[in-house]
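fyi for ur records
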Amino acid sequence: MTFIPASRGGAAEPEFMLDINTTPLIDVMLVLLIMLIITIPIQTHAVKLNLPVAASAPPVPPEVVRVDIDRDGRIAWNDQVLGGRAELEQRLRAAAAQPLQPELHLRPDLRVKYEHVVMVMASAQRLGLRAIGIVGNEQFVR
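which gave:
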């Protein structure tokens, strides 16, 4: 306890300070907490897995077939102009029958009618081609 003299202008009456100084207590608790954190062993969570090992070479990327449609609706298969829809469907049927189907990259001209593009996409889907994509979309952004 600490003695604090009163300064009320008269007789000095002793007043006692009854508050506990908690600063040393907090310092001791922080030191204990740090010691506890340091001494706790680090737990590693590891799961042992038996992963399969690849026995073969990486897969071969599929062949890419480019189908171009010009502004008049003419269709070209890898830069070779086709005679019509029958020849296109014949080639699509042959491509769909392959064990590793090729990717069909459809490249329509900006000014081609939509019906020509939809006809090619519908034929490819109907005949069983699964990988169809439209390439060259940047020409449509203005």
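Strands lie at 2-5, 14-17, 64-69, 75-77, 80-81, 103-108, 132-134. thats all i got for now
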